[in-house]
Amino acid sequence: MRHLVLGNGSLLISFDEKYQIRDIFYPHAGQENHTKGYPSRFGVWADGNFSWIFSDNWIRLLDYLPKTFVTNVQLENHNLGIRIKSNDTIFPSKNIFIRKISLESTKKIRLFLHQDFRIFSSKVGDCAFYEPQTRSIIHYKKNRYFLIASSPSFCSFAIGRKAFSNLEGTWRDAEDGELHQTAIAEGSVDSTIRIDPDSQQVYYWICAGSSLEEVIALQHFILSETPSATFEFSKKYWSNWLIKPEEIEDLSSQVSRLYERSLFVIRAHTDKQGAVIASSDSEVTERASDHYAYLWTRDGAFTAYALDLAGYSTLTKHFFQFCSEIVHEKGYFLQRYNADGTPASSWHPLWDVNLKKPLTPIQEDETALILWALGKHYEKYKDTEFIAEIYQPLIVRCADFMVKFRNEKLKLPDFSWNLWEDRCGIHAFTTASVIAGLKAASTFAEIFGDTKRAKIYDQAANYFREGMLENLYCHEAKRFLRSIEALDNGGFTKDYKSDASLLWLTLFGIFDSEDEKIKQTVQAIEENLWNKTQIGGLSRYENDLYMKTSEKTTGNPWIICTLWLADYYILSAKTKSEIEKARSLIEKVASWASESGMLPEQISPFDRTPISVMPLTWSHACFIATVNHLIEKIRLL
């Protein structure tokens, strides 16, 4: 789990619960983790006694300064008699991480900062050396350079091997309060610097670049501007970047605070080229041998929708432009992508081993959701010139694909993976997203006078809606099915399980919230998926086994699913009193955030312990969207 994140679109850094830097991504958000999740440590020597910040002797409070993208970390060690306030930020336009350390102690202090780089996620072939002209330590491999320096300048340093031949690293050398200097080391290396403060305030920084000249130029920039001015500029910039609706003050301080944190978390996970990665928490690799630092266009579409509601159209235009560049020539998106636009690892096969026939390796909702989110973007901003640029390469290409990708027998979109990525079939959520995407495409076609396409897209959307009523609605159960799945013999089977994604049949506007078919579907969702514990919260679907913590529940509560239920309550509310159910769910989700305002993917149904990755961009995006929905509904009522 990650409890603090910082990022500017090129440099992304995350911290664990013990205030150790665990991930350093550069030059893309979520791509090229140059620590591989290993910790960089922070230690203190006071009058002959030494302690690492990660030890149990420290009381740690991890948070952010209000209304800006700067950490606010309080560290206290009663045994050493020392208190530290530490503030971290990443400069908005240059790849500089800078920390301001404020000390409270009457003792003689030495600070030790440790760097454990594994550049390109490998400990093989790194090099670190002391650079005397800039009085810095520089780690590098190929075209990745990281410069470490401080003010006052560190007085000693250690560079050596780690994780090799029983060597733990130079951080062990610091524990006697001294460092044994070595000017250079290669292979699997780390470094530690010692700073002897000459005042109550110390600055420490890391510069990232693609060449030695670049990081040295960044060092000169910091020194010429002064570390203090560099830090304050970043703090002020991020304060001005923040947009919060005035009406949010009418909600609780807990909700307002999490809304602010959510915007900054999303910003950290948004790459300069437009990709929005799911999570920078690399700890997941220990159980899954892969990570979440990818763009799923599904997550990206929901995030773009939330950012548009929040007023960040510049970021969303970069995202949609990025999508227009990575879309497959056949008009669909693959499962996920790296931040630079290259295809990422996948488990969607191209071949059905049972039916012995090719498969289209997609979850079609990832294609449809892009057009839906783009339609919502245009509704708010009416930026026709931008839409015109991506009309042919993105909108037409995707809509043409969705029109053709159909199962004529069932009058539904053809078989693909569901939004949860665990079943292949024809899914109600996917179908609803396709209808919403085609409706948006039809509107765009009308705007540009492309009447033939507008009619084709609209007819296809209506055709699939008819197919939903004929084949995805169960008259006996009086509710919608979640999917139709293929049998090995070529036949079909219907899946009657309740699924939180069915809430989107009305959230997309495909069916009215007053429709009895929707009411019965939602009632089944509430009865079958709400956790009957004090924690509450909505699970994804019946008997969800993914990281399930107990057989006593149907599955773990998911942040996004609980917020979708709140969205339904908001949509269907007719009076202010009816909207309180939604408000209570929003407050509940806000109470699930970490002390620093991070939302995980899911939580324990018994003690709210975060499960899977934290933070999850999708969770934060849904929180922003739902809060905006609530504010708008209150305004309307």
Distance between the termini: 40 Å
Discrete helix count: 15
| Lateral arrangement of strands in the main beta sheet | 7-8-9-10-18-14-13-12-16
- How many domain modules? 3
Uncertain residue ranges: none
Structural class: alpha+beta
Q: What share of residues are in beta strands?
A: 15-25%
CATH C-level class of the largest domain is Mainly Beta
Q: Radius of gyration in whole Å, from Cα?
A: 26 Å
DSSP summary, beta strand count: 30
Q: What is the approximate shape? A: elongated
CATH topology of the largest domain, by name, is: Beta-galactosidase, Chain A, domain 5
For the largest beta-sheet, the strand count, sense and barrel status come to: 9 strands, antiparallel
**Mean pLDDT value:** 97
Describe it.
This protein is α+β, with helices and mostly antiparallel strands. The chain folds into three domains: 4-241, Beta-galactosidase, Chain A, domain 5 (Distorted Sandwich), CATH 2.70.98; 243-272 and 530-637, no CATH class; 316-515, Glycosyltransferase, CATH 1.50.10. The chain is built from 15 helices and 30 strands. The strands form eight sheets. A nine-stranded antiparallel beta sheet has the order 7-8-9-10-18-14-13-12-16. A five-stranded antiparallel beta sheet has the order 6-5-11-17-15, with no helix packed on it. Helix 9 packs antiparallel against helix 10 and helix 14 (580-592) packs antiparallel against helix 15 (617-636). The longest helix is centred in the middle third of the chain and has 21 residues, at 384-404. It is elongated. The chain starts with a strand and ends with a helix. The relative contact order is 0.09.
